[in-house]
Every structure is written in C-alpha cells, then in structure tokens.
Design a protein that fits this description.
By secondary structure, this protein is α/β, with parallel strands linked by helices. Helices cover about 45% and strands about 20% of the residues.
C-alpha cells in the first residue's frame, strides 16, 4: 500500500466517525502563527499531549477575543488528516476561553446554528398590524405577565379580544408547552399578532426561551410574534427570532394594542381636515358658478347665439370667396402655360407647311449628305406622312 493510499484510508476512517466531526478540545495555545493568508495556526497542548490546529480566516474573523500563546481555551471543530504531512489536526470552528460554562457554550453553538439557517434574518421580520382584531397570548396563567398584558390591553383599547394559550414558562416541560401553545394559536387562525413571554428571572428561569424548540416554533408562526421575556441585559433566542422584541409583557401589550383614545383623536383630526377640504371645494365651485351666471353667454344666450351664427356666416362667405379667387388664379396660370407649350410644339411649325424628313423610325435627316440614291425616307407632314424613295441627291455631300 502506498503512503497516499494509507493516508486516504485513515482520512476516510476519521471522516466516518461522528464523534470526531464535532468535538470539543480543551488545552493551552502555543506556537501561534498568523501568516498573510489570515488563517491561524497553533498547537493545543496539555501535560500529556499536543494537537495541531488550524482556524481558517472566515472563522477567525468571528472571534470575540484575541488568541495568544499561553491562553487556555476550549475549541470546537473537526478532526482530520492533513495529507501532505500525514498528521492529524483539528480544524477549528469556534473558540471560547476556559471558564465559560458548558451551558453557555452549547447556547452559543445553537445561536450560531440558527443564525446560519437564517432564523434571525431582519429581512423576514414582519410589521405589526395597525389595528388587530384579536391578540394571542402565550404565557403562564399564574404569573404577573398575564395580568400586566390584560390590564394594559384593556386600558388602551377596552373590549379588544385576547385569546390566551396557557403554558409553563420555566422548567423542563416549558419548551414543549410553549411550542404547542404557539401552534394551537396558529391553528386557531383568528389572531393577528401573538405575544409570548414571561416576567423577569434568572438565566436558569429564562432557559425555556433559549431552546431550539421554542425558537423554531416562533419562526414557523404564520402571524407576527412579539417576544416579551422580562429582561433587559441579555437577549434570548426567542428575542432574536421574534418579529419584534419588548422588554416587558406590559411593553409588549402597548406595542400590540393601539390606544383607542389616540385613534379617536386621529379620526377626529382626519374628519375635520376632510370637512374643511370639502367646504373649500364647495366654495370654489360656488364662486365659479356665480361667474358663469354673470357671464354674457348665460345672461343673454339668444343674442350671443345669433352673434355667433352671424360670425360663422361671415367666415363661410370669406372662405368661399378665397377659394374661388385661388382657383381662378390657378386657371390663369394653366392657360398661360398651355399657350407657351403650344407655341413651342413642332406640330405648330408643321402646320405652316414645313415637314420633317427622317429614316423610317429613325432620327431626323439634317443634310442631303446623310442619304444616298435608292434609300427610303419618311416625310412627316402636319397631317399624315409620306414614304419616299430617293432618286437623286442635290446639294451638300
């Protein structure tokens, strides 16, 4: 077996091992290099072994801290063989400093995964409806969040419909219940916007809103979703996926429910503007009508009609006169041209006794030298022609 074949065989074994395609490795950085390509090359080591690592430029640009020799880190990546040197190495995807909890690492990994899939893309965020008919709420029935949402909604728009899908907001069963509540409201199909959230709490209390199940349920919801997880400092995955984020459930209700008083004030303003505009147009129309009534045409319509008819008759007579004068001038020009044409016509000369002599069907003969005895010629007269035989030629030769 050749070296290349053995290396390819070992490479294939590593690629088929699922544990090596996404492995976490802890160690201390040494021999860190960053050539002009932008790729990072370093070694992870502990007191027992060393592992060569490479982090390509596209990944190292996402680092949130600088790597340096002696720094202890946790790196995630894929183990593979570098065929040229025949050594195995770790192709690093992410790096975290030691001391970061595993829960945080897993959450960061999940966030990166969902971001790559486009769940956080701002272009897919939907606007909230201007005047929703019904608002769906996903939260716990025993928490303060539901009371705050109801209170704010009733204050802003008394009588607005709230459809509540209860769910636990913390604990192991919370993610499944939150996802199912969202799906139930989507199947109901009569809500225009959904608020999902809870009051504040610790990171552990908010963990249900950092699960993949809840994030994908929000992403799949057919109507806009407001995430109202009561915290200010950190964003949950629910905040990142939702169409809008509110810092508290009360703020979410204020965001989703328009203030009835504001709407009534705006309608009143629009009504006043419309009435003012209509009265202005009526005034303009009334002024125009008064000007028309006072105009000469409407004040004495019969007299105006007769004047217009007289003016039309005058135009007709003028047009008739001009047409006759134009035709007569053109006829005189035509007669002059006819006289000049007849005066220049050869037929006019022939009528005075002259004749034209030519060869039959040929050109005119201008001298006697152009023909000889025995030739036939044609003599054209004013009326008819003669076909003659030349017996003798006299004159110029």
């Amino acid at each position: 077996m050749a070296v290349g074949e053995l290396t390819a065989y070992l490479q294939n074994l590593l690629n088929r091992d699922p544990h090596l395609s996404n492995v976490w490795v802890k160690g201390e950085i040494s021999n860190l290099r960053c050539p002009s390509s932008g790729h990072l090359y370093f070694t992870l080591k502990d007191r027992y072994a060393a592992l060569r690592c490479v982090m390509f430029n596209s990944r190292q640009r996402l680092l949130k801290f600088a790597l340096k020799d002696g720094l202890e880190i946790v790196a995630r990546g894929q183990v593979a063989i570098y065929p040229r040197d025949g050594v195995y190495q770790l192709y690093v995807e992410e790096v975290f400093p030691v001391g970061t909890g595993m829960a945080t690492l897993l959450l960061q990994e999940l966030e990166a995964k969902l971001e790559r899939e486009g769940l956080f893309d701002p272009r897919r965020k939907r606007p909230l409806p201007f005047l929703p008919r019904r608002i769906g709420v996903v939260t716990s029935l025993s928490g303060a969040a539901i009371r705050d949402i109801i209170t704010v909604s009733r204050r802003r728009f008394p009588g607005i419909d709230l459809v509540i899908a209860p769910a636990r907001v913390q604990g192991d069963k919370a993610p499944l219940e939150l996802a199912r509540a969202l799906q139930a409201l989507a199947r109901y199909g009569k809500v225009d916007v959904i608020i999902i959230g809870r009051g504040g709490g610790s990171a552990e209390d908010l963990s249900a809103f950092n699960t993949e199940m809840v994030a994908r349920a929000i992403f799949s919801c057919p109507v806009p979703v407001i995430a109202a997880v009561g915290h200010e400092t950190d964003l949950t995955l629910a905040d990142l996926v939702a169409d809008h984020r509110a810092p508290t459930p009360s703020a979410a209700a204020a965001m989703a429910v328009p203030a009835k008083a504001d709407l009534e004030e705006r309608l009143g303003m629009l009504h006043r503007r419309a009435r003012k505009g209509l009265l202005h147009r009526l005034e303009l129309a009334r002024n125009r009508l008064e000007r028309l009534v006072k105009s000469r045409g409407l004040a004495r319509p019969l007299q105006e009609l007769r004047a217009r008819q007289q003016y039309l008759d005058a135009l007709e007579q003028s047009l008739s006169y001009r047409c006759r004068a134009f035709l007569q001038a053109k006829l005189r020009i035509l007669e002059n041209l006819t006289v000049r044409l007849e005066g220049a016509s050869p037929l006019k000369i022939l009528s005075r006794g002259y004749a034209v002599c030519r060869r039959p069907g040929g050109s005119p003969i201008k001298s006697s030298g152009e023909v000889g005895p025995g030739e036939r010629v044609e003599v054209i007269l004013h009326r008819g022609s003669l076909h003659c035989l030349v017996e003798r030629v006299v004159g110029e030769s």
